[in-house]
Design brief:
The complex is a heterotrimer. Chain B is an alpha/beta fold. Chain B has helices spanning 46-54, 75-78, 97-107, 112-126, 141-153, 171-186, 198-201, 221-227, 240-247, 274-282, 297-307; strands at residues 6-17, 20-31, 35-39, 61-66, 69-70, 82-85, 159-163, 190-195, 206-211, 214-219, 232-237, 253-259, 262-267, 287-292. Chain B folds into two domains: 3-222, P-loop containing nucleotide triphosphate hydrolases (Rossmann fold, 3-Layer(aba) Sandwich); 230-294, Alpha-Beta Plaits (2-Layer Sandwich). Chain B has eleven helices and 14 strands. In chain B, 53% of the residues are buried. Chain C has a six-stranded mixed beta sheet, with helices on both faces. In chain C, helix 3 packs parallel to helix 5 (142-153) and helix 5 (142-153) runs parallel beside helix 6 (172-187). The chains are: A alpha/beta, B alpha/beta, C alpha/beta. Chains in contact: A-B, B-C. The interface between B and C is large, with 48 and 51 residues.
Chain lengths: 372, 311, 316
């Protein structure tokens, strides 16, 4: 028979212990903030402020217009004007520039003649990802420059251009995708870390033997220990969300209450997982390590945060279904960016509730009131 | 002891860890309101036995009935009536004295109206009153144990299990601990205590001597001492260790041991007493005194264990 | 033991203050070479602080002392090489074998290369672990570990040995074996300091120093301490020990009454005159009075009486 009084006693005891353990408490509040700020700045798929060198062999008003077009695009910073293409290499070698534009001597002549005018772009390809983004931007600027020419009526024929419009994330700022995703990833890690210590600590300190001799039900132990950490986790979600909105300017279009409800389901699952690990490991060091392994990599790599799940090989895709951060990621992105409601997130919500139930059941099942 | 009044009843209680049998078919009864001692050398199974009685370790075979409830099948339903204090300090060192007591009061669902009253009473015994707001981790060894005992007693258990409660406790605090225990026994609580200290064994109503998980002897301390009556001598002599080595091989001598500034000699029969002096004098020792002494529980213990062939 | 030999340990007016708190208060004593010197006292009595000063870990605030002829203040570093130390929590490496632990400690204490093998064999032999030299230390019974710990503590043949509750939690048989080793060392001239809470351990010492609240309150042989407390004590059988203790609280001629199992131990001014007073006090409270026997106070009784007389334990 479960007793509310015992459950509250467990929870109250945890709260007192947490309050006196200022280091853990600081970790619980500071770490998520630190992570979201750090990753919010560090992880970005946008490339801007591209240091660019220009070799203008044409030296015409056309070529200067083109260079201005690059300048005003906002992505490129023209840091140098070079005399000869031969000067490019040493600069690229030292990473002083990431892009060099070579405007050939017949550039304006070709335009006037209606011939294709060639623009040579030399990119630092050591980071392939960035390089292709830079090339894409370069082509986009060149394209918009030539369409401007067409409007002027100077150019008769141009290759067809694909028109694209971006929804939800109009500025195509990757930060808008990253920050809500981070909320999910960070909460997964923090939640499991928080509880991974709690049962192991009692085994290590010898308090578990005493606790095991009382009539306390193991479900009361699990829930009682979980409640204070759930409160901390929810506060963390709020704090991280506020940082995302205020510091990174990420839009928040959805229902805050819905986010908190779904976050609760998600956190219970993650906290339960941490407690499960704690009960298995019975040692704090091992439990923390296991919790990191069990949450950090999957949350980062397999949740759809870093890599789109759709492009993963099928077996890996199957594994992602076991990564609860995957569902919460959809929830945070959906609520932050699209402002979607429960009708869209129903599946994710149900899956997270299932995860919460499984997490609690596992923790309760594995935690035995026995020495061996 | 009849079945009716047994509060604790062990029936071939056995626990194995892999190949090692830590507790091997223990059977005995403990009566209601008895102060019962478990005594034995390291690894004799005292702690394992108490853990099974406390329901924190399942027996491999056999059973223990605690107030009629089987600890093999139904340990959880026995726990409200039990109190257990493990050998290692098991309270929360980062909680205060009061917080620890409240926590255990809540776990046992002690009615709030009674809680403060009981705490007052325990404070009176334990002298912990002035330290209620101190963190348990900051208490001295003796006070920690008194707090442990207070937490164990807050729900007024029927059976109290104490695993080496006086370990690391100074004699002054030890007195307080025993005062509380005796008080509980007087109120009708059944108490089972393990100890490695033989002088403590004289307090018990009955003592079970354990060795290698088996029961060597079970009797009152007086009965146990009676067996050795007239057989134990204190010998004041020079060159103690040499004197001991001279006496030990004699078939009339069960055991001779150096004890401070004298030898303690246990004879196989009281009639052999003269052999001590004659042997030592023949060996050129100067014997300054041979006094028959009351056998201590330590003598009893060593007597039994050596008879069991461990030595 | 020669009475003329210079003391192995000499302490004069030794004092240690931590701020306003006087942890050790003008303690003076001598210890003879080869003597086993017991150090008793409740928690916080100043035993540990005294031992820390003697082992050169803590400088005294006042007073002086010498260990093995070395000044504890000016020659603290040299003292550390002249002592062996074994604590209750003495940390042998559980995952090393017996032999590996011995080898480790002989390296740690800088035992001469030439003597290492000889000392190793001596330690193994002394601890009775020669046959078990290849076993992991963690697997050994507590009593064996204690013997090995003692062996490791004396591997460098220190003239002075400090033991902190060396046989705590050890059964009587292992304890006797352990003390046999100490006697063996003492006969060879090793001076041994033992601090303990246990009278069973204290009984093995040649002399006992009892500390309370930083001061030395008694110093004598166990037998003399027992005889010195000439207060008679009665053991009384009764049907309700707690009530009997309460009933005797203010009976004339009764100094103290304490429960001992179902019996009570009563300290009285005079055994003969106290008997009828006690009997009538108990009967007056409706209690049954059984046998009354004169008993010799145990060393623990002596200890408690002396501490109470000296103002009670620090946390009482």
């Amino acid at each position: 028979m479960l007793s509310r009084r015992r459950l509250w006693a467990m929870a109250r005891k945890e709260v007192i212990q947490l309050r006196r353990d200022t280091r853990s408490l600081a970790l619980a509040f500071v770490l998520p903030v630190l992570l979201v700020v750090l990753f919010g700045y560090a992880i970005t798929w946008d490339v801007d402020d591209i240091a660019t060198a220009v070799v203008d062999q044409d030296q015409s008003s056309r070529s200067r217009d083109l260079i201005d077009a690059f300048r005003s695009s906002g992505y490129f910073t023209v840091t140098r004007s070079l005399e000869r293409p031969g000067d490019i290499e040493p600069l690229l070698d030292r990473s002083a520039i990431r892009l060099a534009l070579v405007i050939p001597p017949d550039f304006s002549a070709a335009i006037l003649a209606g011939r294709p005018a060639e623009l040579q772009a030399i990119v630092d390809g050591s980071d392939a990802n960035t390089a292709s983004i830079i090339l894409g931007y370069t082509q986009a600027v060149a394209l918009s420059y030539s369409s401007a020419l067409r409007l002027e009526g100077r150019v008769r024929a141009l290759p067809a251009t694909a028109e694209s419009r971006v929804w939800y994330n109009e500025e195509l700022s990757s930060r808008n995708m990253i920050v809500p995703g981070l909320v999910a990833v960070i909460m997964m890690i923090i939640a499991a870390m928080l509880t991974s210590l709690t049962i192991a600590r009692e085994w290590e300190r010898g308090t578990m033997e005493q606790l095991a001799a009382t009539p306390v039900h193991r479900f009361e132990v699990v829930i009682g220990k979980l409640l204070p950490y759930l409160a901390i986790g929810l506060i963390d979600v709020v704090v991280v969300t506020i940082i995302g909105v205020l510091l990174f300017g990420v839009p928040f279009r959805g229902n805050a209450l819905l986010l908190m409800i779904l976050a609760t389901a998600f956190l219970i699952g993650a906290l339960g997982l941490g407690m499960f690990i704690s009960a298995v490991a019975k040692s704090q060091v091992l439990a923390t390590q296991l919790a990191m392994i069990a949450t950090f990599l999957p949350a980062f790599l397999l949740s759809g945060f870093m890599f789109a799940i759709a492009v993963m090989p099928a077996p890996l895709q199957a594994v992602t279904y076991l990564v609860p951060a995957r569902y919460f990621l959809v929830v945070t992105r959906g609520i932050f960016l699209k402002g979607v409601g429960v009708e869209v997130l129903r599946v994710q919500g149900l899956l997270m509730i299932a995860f919460a139930i499984v997490g609690l059941a596992l923790a309760t099942r594995v935690f035995q009131k026995r020495i061996l | 002891m009849s079945q009716v009044e047994a509060m604790v009843s062990l029936e071939r209680l056995t626990r194995r860890f892999g190949d090692v049998t830590a507790v091997d078919g223990l059977s005995f009864d403990v009566a209601s309101a008895e102060l019962f001692g478990l005594v034995g050398p390291d690894g004799s199974g005292k702690t394992t036995t108490l853990r099974m009685l406390a329901g924190v370790l399942l027996p491999t075979e056999g059973d223990a009935l605690m107030n009629g409830t089987s600890m093999a099948r139904n340990p959880e339903s026995a726990k409200p009536d039990l109190a257990y204090m493990s050998q290692r300090f098991g309270l929360y060192s980062d909680l205060t004295v009061r917080e620890n007591l409240h926590f255990y009061a809540d776990l046992y669902e002690v009615p709030r109206a009674e809680r403060d009253q009981r705490m007052e009473r325990l404070f009176r015994f334990s002298n912990l009153g002035p330290f209620t707001e101190r963190l348990a981790g900051k208490l001295s060894g003796g006070m920690k144990q008194k707090l442990g005992l207070s937490c164990a007693l807050i729900h007024q258990p029927k059976i109290l299990l104490l695993d080496e409660p006086t370990f690391g406790v100074d004699p002054i605090s030890r007195r307080d601990l025993w005062l509380i225990v005796h008080e509980m026994v007087a109120e009708g609580v059944t108490v089972i205590v393990s100890t490695a200290y033989m002088d403590e064994a004289e307090r018990f109503d009955r003592v079970a001597l354990l060795n290698e998980g088996r029961l060597l002897a079970l009797a009152t301390p007086a009965e146990m001492q009676e067996e050795l009556k007239g057989k134990v001598y204190a010998v004041v002599v020079d060159r103690l260790r040499e004197a001991r080595d001279r006496l030990q091989p004699l078939h009339q001598v069960e055991r001779a041991a150096v004890f401070g500034d004298r030898l303690h000699v246990t004879l196989t029969d009281p009639s052999h007493a003269p052999v001590i002096e004659t042997t030592l004098q023949d060996g050129g020792f100067s014997v300054r005194g041979t006094d028959r002494i009351e056998p201590s529980m330590e003598d009893v213990f060593i007597h039994h264990v050596s008879q069991a062939g461990v030595l | 033991m020669s009475g003329r030999a210079a003391p192995a340990v000499r302490v004069e007016g030794l004092t240690k203050c931590f701020g306003d708190f006087v942890a050790v208060d003008h303690v003076t004593f001598d210890v003879r070479p080869g003597e086993i010197f017991g150090f008793l006292g409740p928690n916080g009595a100043g035993k540990t602080t005294t031992i820390k000063m003697l082992t050169g870990l803590l400088p005294p605030s006042e007073g002086s002392g010498s260990v093995a002829g070395l000044d504890i203040e000016t020659e603290a570093d040299r003292i550390k090489r002249q002592i062996g130390y074994m604590s209750q929590l003495f940390s042998l490496y559980a995952d090393l074998t017996v032999e590996e632990n011995v080898r480790f400690f002989s390296g740690l204490y800088g035992v001469d290369r030439a003597r290492r093998l000889e000392r190793r064999d001596w330690v193994l032999e002394m601890a009775g672990l020669t046959e078990h030299r290849r076993r992991l230390t963690g697997e050994l019974p507590l009593g064996w570990k204690q013997r090995l710990a003692l062996g490791c503590a004396v591997i460098h043949e220190p003239p002075t040995l400090f033991l902190d509750e060396p046989t705590s939690g050890v059964d009587p048989i292992s304890r006797r074996r352990f003390w046999d080793l100490i006697y063996q060392l003492a006969e060879a001239g090793t001076t041994t300091f033992v601090s303990t809470h246990y009278m069973e351990e204290a009984e093995y010492c040649h002399r006992l120093a009892l500390m309370n609240r930083g001061a030395l309150i008694a110093l004598d042989t166990p037998a003399a301490l027992r005889d010195g407390l000439r207060v008679p004590m009665l053991e009384i059988e009764t049907n309700d020990a707690p009530r009997a203790v309460a009933a005797l609280g203010d009976a004339p001629g009764v100094r103290d009454a304490a429960m001992f199992g179902r019996r009570i131990h009563v300290t009285v001014d005079d055994s003969i005159t106290a008997r009828p007073v006690i009997a009538s006090a108990l009967e007056g409270h409706g209690l049954e009075v059984g046998d009354m026997t004169d008993i010799t106070p145990s060393l623990e009784d002596v200890f408690v009486a002396l501490v109470r007389r000296a103002g009670g334990a620090p946390d009482e």
